[in-house]
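Aim 2 progress update. The chain analyzed this quarter is reproduced below.
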Amino acid sequence: MRIVILDGYPIDQGQLDWNAVSVSGELTVHPRSQPEEVIERAAGAEVLMTNKVLLAGDTIAQLRELRYVGILATGTNVIDFAACRARQIAVTNVPGYCAPSVAQFVIAMLLQFLEDVPSYVAAVRANAWAAQPDYALFLRPRVELAQKTMAILGLGSIGGKVADLARAFGMNVLAAAVPGGTVDGRVPLGEALAAADVVSLHCPLTEQTRRLVNRDFLRAMKPGAVLVNTARGALVDEGALLDALAEGTLGGALLDVVEQEPPRRDHPLFDGQAPWASRVVVTPHVSWGTVEARRRLIQTAGENLAAFLRGERLNRVD
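Predicted structure tokens:
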């Protein structure tokens, strides 16, 4: 059986092996694939795995031998599900593998924003501490996370782990309702936004959540609150976000994702000279990718495929 991975490098980074997958067939791993390369590379494959390479309906229609698509991620927005269902192609994803990784990154971003430890280190090295009359040198007012409120949109494996860490810091956690969500007992979104000091996004990207963070959403947030997005860039209307930053109503935007990745060089959120630059932290979509998380991803991808070959359903999303 021929197995093709279209974009393995972000996961293996040239260091991790794919043995958990290769035991099931003849495996070819492409570090990266451009859209125009997909048909040729996937030709004859019964199993196709993708991390971020899109598989549109017209592409799937040309891959006549295809029986199985393994999404090498939790999010499933890279696949045309209607095309897969029409052909009875099995589709799996890898849920939960990066929950600890993302959760610790959310807290790291929040602490970096609130504490800015590097600025204190730089000040000490520049003798600013030695040159001042008091025993303590404060560069900015410090605040505690304890008793602050975090609203989490998407309380799955990742959001749940973020909630655990937030509570460990003494924060109050609200599970906010998400458009299209089916879980009962969630706090109405408007109520959660008005109460939260921190809003953290962990919901999937769907047609109902695309650009969920729009002008109305941002205006409903508590003045001075901080938005954290480690989920999908397209959850946020970036124009509305820039306006909220310019207006001064948003306390901060901590983003590990943007709508277009890689981004353009002149992306306005990266402007270090903007009046609101000190209220923005952007990192390059790395929250998911600890070594441990990437190993779990590969292992689960192999287990998903092995289960399919045995006639079992494991992490099926079709």
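The chain has a mean pLDDT of 96. The radius of gyration is 22 Å. These observations will guide the mutagenesis experiments scheduled for the next reporting period.
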